[in-house]
Every structure is written in structure tokens, then in C-alpha cells.
Amino acid sequence: MIIKSVLALLCLITVVKGDLGVIENNIWDEILESLVQIAVRSIEKVLTETGNITLVNEPTTVNVTVATIVAGTLYCDDATFFGLESLSLPVEFKSDLSNSNISFSLTPTVSDGIGFDVQNYTADVGIANQIPLYGTNGATSLAMNKLKLKIGANVSWNKTGIFLENLQLKPFFLAKVKFTQIFNNPDFSSTVSNALSLLVDAGLVLYYIEEKCITCALSSVVQSAINGNLTDFWKNLVNDCMSICLHSQSTLVNAAFQSDPTNFNEEDLKNFVVSALEELVVFLEGRLEI
Fold first, then answer.
1. Which of 20, 101, 131, 283 has the fewest CB atoms within 10 Å, measured from its CB?
2. How crowded is residue 125: how many other Cβ atoms within 10 Å of its Cβ?
3. What are the CA-CA distances from residue 5 to residues 8, 32, 148 (Å)?
């Protein structure tokens, strides 16, 4: 409701200011900037007072299908998104209505743990038709000890539509994963939890080594999606990030920018997942007692 009100006022200001040219343009900009600050502070207050959000509070079964890679069913009767109590939403917002342009920077930050908690789940899922994943009366927790996401962009509009430009997304987080009752085996579940936490840590190391390339790629894909231009997402990604990512220290990143993933079919993707899982097992065997 708050966001709709701000957008409505933006439209009203854009129309009215054309009839009241005697009032300086920057007055309307200041009014809009103040309204946005009020809206963000109100949203922040609502979320921090909410704290936890109940996603599931009754028996729920979900059919899971991801191309030909993952298929099966998941059941749970208790799922919660937690950790909003320490959320802060610092925002910088600049309006230039006379040129149909606004710019903003938003940095959602959570100083304490935030994540998902699922209790009493039952899983019966297959991965690539080769790896079964099941369990009963289990629990899952995916928590980020700290979370910070810097978001910056310009928004412009004209008669043809609204356009997002120069989007910049820069996440920072520390994560931990915990599972119980995978294969109905507490000891194995502990090993899997440790393995996944290790992989998250390894992924974070890669992320911070390749931060410029990864954040550029993430920003480019999200901007293409928001602007309704996903059909050209790879072209946009290469144009936006080629100069950054070709200097990557990772052969994987370099290889990705020298190929075109839009040529991949489902069978290619399945083979890639199977190969990645096999390499994953080899990686974990060297670091965990499996």
C-alpha cells in the first residue's frame, strides 16, 4: 500500500508540475525524495516488528520438478523465515523529474542471523535420475550469520516505458547449512551438513576472489530480467562484463565467457550436473570422513 501511494504521488507530481511551472522543479524533487524516505522507514519498521514470517503452518506437499535434473515431492508442516528483527534499510534517493530520471542506492543489512527454518519435513527426490534424496521427520536450516546487499541503479521513463539502467548488486554474507534425517540417518545428515557448509565457505572464497566479475554478471542478468529483455541476456552480459571477467583468475569463469550457454539443451545440462556431482564427491572425500 505504501509503495502504491508513492507511485501514485509520483504520477500526480509529474502531471501537476506541468501546469504549475512557476514552482521550481527542485521542489517536486524534494517532495518525492521525502516521500520515498518515509516509505522506506515505514517498511523497515513493519519488517523489524514482524521479526519472523511463517511460510507454512499446516501440512503441505509440493511437487518439485526442475527440467530433467530434479524430480520428486517435498512435505513439511512448519516453515519459517526468521531474523528480520535486526534489519536496517539505509537509502539514498535522488530525483530529477524534469529529465524523467531518478537514482537510488539501497543497502539492506542484517547484523544477526537470517534465513529459513523447516521442521518435520519428508523428502522423496531424485537428482539426474541417479541420486536419490529422501528422509522423514527431518529439519533443515539455512542461515546467514550476516547479510548486506548494496543495490544501486538509475530509473528513467518516457512514452515507451520505464527502464532500469546501471544496476549494481553487491552482496556480502556468511552462511551455514544444517540438515537432519537425510536418508533417515543422523550421522550421514551431520556429514552432509558439514559438507554443504564447507562448500558454502569454498563458494564464498571464490566469490570474493571473483567479486567484480560475479557482481557484474549478477547485476546484468537481473537488469535484463527487470527490463523484460531476457532473450538477449547473454548478449547484454557479454557487453557489460566481458572486459572485467576475461581478467578472471578462474579458468571456469574464462571458459564461460568464451561460450554461449543459450546453445545448451536439457541433456547438456543433465550431463553437466552429473559431472559436477562426481567432482563434488571427489572434493569432499579429501576433506571429510565419508
1. 20
2. 17
3. 5, 11, 27
Encoded amino acid at 75, one letter? Y
Amino acid at 173: F
- The pLDDT profile of the chain, 290 residues, written as one tens digit per residue, is 444 455 555 555 555 555 444 455 678 888 888 999 999 999 999 999 998 999 888 888 888 887 667 788 988 888 999 989 999 999 999 988 888 899 999 999 998 888 889 888 888 887 766 667 778 888 888 888 778 899 999 999 888 888 899 999 998 877 778 878 777 778 878 877 877 777 777 777 778 888 888 899 899 999 999 888 878 888 888 888 888 887 776 666 666 666 655 555 566 556 666 666 666 666 555 555 54
Domain residue spans in the chain?
1-50, 52-204
Q: What DSSP line would sit under 47-79, residue for residue?
A: HHHH--EEEE-S-EEEEEEETTTEEEEEEESEE
